[in-house]
Amino acid sequence: MSFIVSSAPTGRPAPSRRPRASAPLIRVSALALMAGALPWLPATAVAQQAAAEGKTPAVALPAIDVDTEFAAGGMSVPSADGHLSSQAIADRRTATPDTAALLSGLPGVSLYGAGGISSLPVLRGLADDRVLTLVNNVPVAASCPNHMNPALSYIAPGDVGAIDVLAGVTPVSRGGDNIGGTIAVTTPEPQFAGEGQGMAVHGDVSTAFRSVNNGTTVGGHLSAATDRYVVGYAGSWSRGGDYARGGDGKDVNSTLFETQSHTLSLAARVGDDGVLEVRGGVQYTPYEGFANQRMDMTDNRGTSVDAHYKAGFAWGSLDATAYWQRVRHAMNFLEDKGGSDGGGMPMNTRSNAEGYTVKADIPLGATDTLRVGSEFHHYALDDWWPPVGGMMAMMMGPNTFHTINGGTRDRLGTFVEWERTWGGGWSTLAGLRNDTVWTNTGTVSGYNASYAANAAAFNARDRARTDANVDATAELRYAIDDQATVDLGYARKSRSPNLYERYAWSTGNMASSMITWNGDGNYYVGNPDLKPEVANTVSASFSWHAAPAADGAAAPPAWEIRLTPHYSYIEDYISQRLLAPVVSNGVPFAKVMFANRDARTYGVDLSGQATVWRDVRYGAIGLSGVLGWVRGQTVSDEDGLYHMMPLNGRIALDHTLGGWHGTVEVQMVDAKTQVDRLLREPTTPGYTLVNLRGSYTWGDVRVDFAIENLMDKAYALPLGGIDYGDWRAANYTTPLGSVPGPGRSFNAGLTVKF
């Protein structure tokens, strides 16, 4: 899908920049994926320049919006500091309707396998609720006991304007209540018409096809703008069947899906330098299979409204958002798992959320900037399972099972942050943050008398909890010269338990088997006495790049490389303790209770890129690569943490000539042998995949094509969990293994702008 990405804050002139390529752009930044890369430095540089010219410092685009495309030849490859180029993102949109998959290829990022549109991003071994996900400044949490509806499933890839990924040592101004980092997704900025231009109408339509699952995506955007107002619409629809695995081409059961989303927006200029934008959206997923879960999604309806205001003032800038969200979610069995319209095991969830965020940037002079902010997030959740008729009524009836009844999780956060440029190549950032989190839930009940003792014990105890969490960040950057930079960082970050971790009360086998987002088939029980996780993270980042162009051109360097080791010690990491072993259809599983245990993660990221050849007649050739290694283990017994990506890397060779852009990519993953023994995590063998991608743009028309997994390699997803869907479809008669990866896929896409 195609759309226009704003290159400057709405309401002020665009800064002088080099010409852009004709293809639509998405800018994805991950400066802090290299932990210690300081995404706030360019704002100070702009303030210094403005002060030197005797002007009021304007609020500049943050470094997270730096475009990584080469000026000459339009070359665009992942840069060494963790950026994923616009061209790489555009190529991947044809291959997937899953927005989280756009992050593949960034240093330190991997994906939990889940549904077709519901992958969970992993930042240096930490994922799900340990990563704060923002969509248009709004925090979004999964409202499901199996986390089938994560934040990024609510926005289609074609609706993305920019994605910022920050891991490890991240500024306190980028959000609290997380220990893994922040992923911030925004839609494109409103595009106002020029003064006196009259009405301007823009739009695009696009479609894509993927052979591996007969998948189809259709989408479009339309906007009408004057110099004061913009009205816009964005819509997307995607559907895919069970995908074919590599090697033998057999379908992987429970991987089908269908989803659609629609958004209306209205933006208006407020005064001389302010913009107010109001958005309302609906998302509907009638079904989505989950190969690594006992259940499937049989309905998900999300509704949201948010208002965003930003403006510049003589004293600095203000950015404020208010929002409201509602989710209605249902699980049951789809056909692959023996489901039917009239039976199964219905499980329902509803949630409501509302809140605000307010942030202010206040330049204190040519070298100092102060940032302050406040945010509040109210979240209410109900999770209940209606009684089942027929043969299962004795076990799952005659009453409604209440898992979470009137659960609430409220968070109030405040922060202060100070940035300073000292001169001589030295810069610092320091911040302090407090997040107070209140959780509670009402009384519960089970299907019948067999649950009475569990429910009575839970109802009799005090369930209200208050956590006062304190975060702090300190970062130091030293530019040795114009070719080398060293970044050092430390962060203390905290996360309070989610409602299921604290309040999933039943120890029964059936009920506890429904509480899991690891895709491991195990049985989970909540623990009201859980403490918040506290991660102490240190990192260093070493960057080298070619000298700037002699003529001062703004093009990226001819080569760059970045090495980032990182280490985190996590106090009270929410892990598990064994309650009892469980054998299901001859396969051993574990029944566990969420429990605090100290843990640690450590690893290294290496990334780089180079322009290896450039010619006016034959175009430009670029080479890029990413290598990542991470380990996670509990401190007491050095058991592996679940879903740690093994050693992995990507190498890509790009060619650009005029409107043509082509890529040959090789992805390599080592065998997964470091696993969580308590949760019986399966090991997986290593593999190598080859992908080919190409696109050509003629003015307002773009054609994409690709072959993913060119050699049709058979492999298992290292973070995909167990292949429950195929095991269930075989009536539990085949061995229970890991989820197979997709086989060879021929992809094609077409985008027309008008």
TrEMBL record:
Residues 1-14 have a biased composition (Low complexity). Transmembrane segments: none annotated. It is found in: Cell outer membrane. PROSITE patterns: TONB_DEPENDENT_REC_2, TONB_DEPENDENT_REC_3. A motif (TonB C-terminal box) lies at residues 737-754. Keywords: Cell outer membrane, Membrane, Receptor, Signal, TonB box, Transmembrane, Transmembrane beta strand, Transport. SUPFAM superfamilies: Porins. Residues 247-710 form the TonB-dependent receptor-like beta-barrel domain. Its main location: membrane. GO terms for molecular function: siderophore uptake transmembrane transporter activity. Residues 1-45 form the signal peptide. GO terms for biological process: siderophore transmembrane transport. The keyword Aminoacyl-tRNA synthetase does not apply. Coiled coil: none annotated. It is a multi-pass membrane protein. The keyword ATP-binding does not apply. InterPro entries: Beta-barrel_TonB, Beta-barrel_TonB_sf, Plug_dom, Plug_dom_sf, TonB-dep_rcpt-like, TonB_rcpt_CS. It comes from the Bacteria. Residues 1-20 are annotated as: Disordered. Residues 78-182 form the TonB-dependent receptor plug domain. GO terms for cellular component: cell outer membrane. Belongs to the TonB-dependent receptor family. This is Iron complex outermembrane receptor protein. It comes from Nitrospirillum amazonense.
